[in-house]
Write a structure and sequence with these properties.
It contains eight helices and eleven strands. It is of the alpha/beta class. The protein binds 1-O-pyrophosphono-5-O-phosphono-alpha-D-ribofuranose (PRP).
């Protein structure tokens, strides 16, 4: 039995359809209810719906053998897991952004609002820029609009949220996409199953 942590939401549903196609079906996963665990013993698979930012914790601690996590979460938390494949979906980019026309006056500490303090610190320390991190959990774009921060470090997908709030990208820090990750012990003890799943998923994603 292979235990798979799926990120709750649209990305998770897309990933499930890929896994279903390559031989890990469990149709009850897509039922409209609030259950969190789904099992198909015949296919040898058990799925969990997990908050996207928690997938890496479930996999790191072996509650799941494999999972699908955003590269953003992997860069931020650096969990002890194997990153097996880039699925090439859930694409977006991690960016520094500010109000339109914002110019950084380097004589003052830059106030940076973000859900990703580690990524933000890494980015600004590479520029030797002195910053003050304001850790938020959502609606990051609001911070510079109401004077809570000078800039933000956040995910940009379509760019619509920035645009509709008179913000603009200052610089792209890193491109982001969904990654297949595995627990290190599971990888050893369920090597055949995990590598088979990985190569099938990888192949299908490359064809898309
Ligand atoms: C994410 C991200 C941006 C937005 C970017 O937020 O933090 O706010 O999506 O998408 P766009 O470029 O397509 O507009 P999310 O929807 O996860 O909500 P949050 O505000 O709770 O972080």
């Amino acid at each position: 039995m292979i235990n798979i942590a799926l990120p709750k939401g649209r990305l998770g549903e897309r990933v499930y359809r890929i896994l279903e196609q390559v031989g890990y079906p469990c149709p009850s996963v897509l039922e409209d209810n609030r259950k969190l665990i789904f099992e198909n013993p015949e296919a040898g698979v058990r799925y969990f719906w997990v908050k996207p930012s928690d997938v890496a914790s479930y996999v790191e601690r072996a509650a799941a053998d494999v999972g699908i996590a955003g590269k953003d979460v992997l860069l931020e938390y650096q969990p002890e897991v194997y990153e097996l494949a880039d699925l090439g979906i859930g694409k977006c980019r991690m960016c520094a952004a500010g109000r339109r026309g914002f110019r950084d006056r380097r004589d003052q500490t830059l106030r940076v609002a973000t859900k990703f303090p580690k990524i933000a610190k890494g980015y600004y320390s590479a520029q030797s820029r002195d910053i003050d991190i304001i850790k938020l959990h959502g609606s990051i774009e609001l911070a510079p609009l109401v004077g809570l921060s000078d800039v933000i470090v956040d995910l940009v997908e379509t760019g619509k949220t920035l645009q509709e709030n008179d913000l603009e990208v200052i610089e792209t820090i890193v491109p982001i996409s969904a990654r297949l990750i595995a627990n290190k012990v599971s990888y050893k003890f369920k090597y055949q199953e995990i590598t088979a799943l990985c190569s099938q998923v990888d192949e299908l994603c490359r064809q898309r």
